[in-house]
Amino acid sequence: MAIDDLKIPPIALGTWAWGDSGETGDGYFGSTLTRAGLEEVADKAHAAGFTLWDTAIVYGMGRSETVLGEVLRRYNRSDYQLSTKFTPQAAETGNDPVADMLEQSLARLGTDYIDLYWIHNPADVARWTPYLIPLLKSGKVKHVGVSNHNLGQIELANRILGEAGFRVEAIQNHYSLLYRNSENAGILDYCRHQGIPFFAYMVLEQGALSGRYSPEDPLPEGSNRAKTYNGMLSQLRALTNKLAVVGQKQGATAPDVATAWAIAKGATPIIGVTKPSYIGGLIRARAIALSSEEIVALEALADAANVNTRGWWEQEM
């Protein structure tokens, strides 16, 4: 799938966790990262054809963009695509806060253009969407999308951009087996009808669907994801066990199957990559073909878990 020159891969590479410093209690993930390790991640990803990187200014308040920019400097700019975001809640005062935030992102990422630039949260669609138009005209932004917007907000953003000859070219929302609000609200159908790629973040629910964690072996203490998910791990056991069983039939693992589920539903999953070994999982996931019976069974177990993983920053769709 492609929007003109924007190549949409089966899976995009997430760098939310790259905003962590690795210190206990700092960030959502409690990730310990090294420059050498992340360079190996990038090398393996690019060799496998995964070259769309997703970040945001608020991931570590600039740290993720900075680290990503340093890692990617070893490549030709034409060999990868960058996706980053304007976050209204972090905007400074000034005549053009969107352009100002973009310039900060460009500097940190070491580039003079962004392939896909998002308005991260709706806040005030009528206020913020028009700021994207001069950025598109300047060439500093090649394509634009909206993230965490409901259907009405997406349609409003599309009308505003359409008056200037542009359109919303991508949607990015939280979407996983445990959180299918975008599907229930008709956003996935809208994307299909309009030919708009739908990017899904938190497909693995920050590792809770990986099968790696359990009440006996919980997520890293001191991290925000531990606060969110450790209390529900017992409820997820039947689902993660089923993911593992389905994966075993295809030489894959539980997170590979959860990722393949999102692809089967028509989404482009954004999968966080912090270890070189994770790239093998992405390779397996894009090759998995789930049957309709397997999809139904997984979704039934997800519903039976009866958990709510909506983030504090997310509105009801």
Number of helices: 13
- What structural category arises from helix and sheet content? alpha/beta
Based on Cα principal axes, name the global outline: globular
Element-by-element helix/strand order = EEEHEHEHEHHEHEHHEHHHEHH
How many beta-strand runs?
Answer: 10
What is the helix fraction of residues, given as a range? 40-55%
Integer tally of domains? 1
Question: What is Rg?
Answer: 19 Å
CATH overall fold name: TIM Barrel
- The low-confidence runs, each spanning 5 or more residues with pLDDT under 50, are none
**Going across the major beta sheet, what is the strand order?**
3-4-5-6-7-8-9-10
Average pLDDT taken over every residue: 94
End-to-end distance: 26 Å
Describe what is shown at a glance.
This protein has 317 residues and is of the alpha/beta class.
Characterize the structure shown.
41% of the residues lie in helices and 13% in strands. The protein has one domain (7-305): NADP-dependent oxidoreductase domain (TIM Barrel, Alpha-Beta Barrel), CATH 3.20.20.100. It contains 13 helices and 10 strands. The mean pLDDT is 94. It is globular and about 55 Å long. It has helices spanning 35-47, 63-72, 97-109, 125-128, 132-138, 151-162, 181-184, 187-194, 224-229, 233-248, 254-264, 277-287, 292-305; strands spanning 2-3, 6-7, 12-14, 52-54, 81-86, 114-119, 141-147, 171-174, 198-201, 268-272.
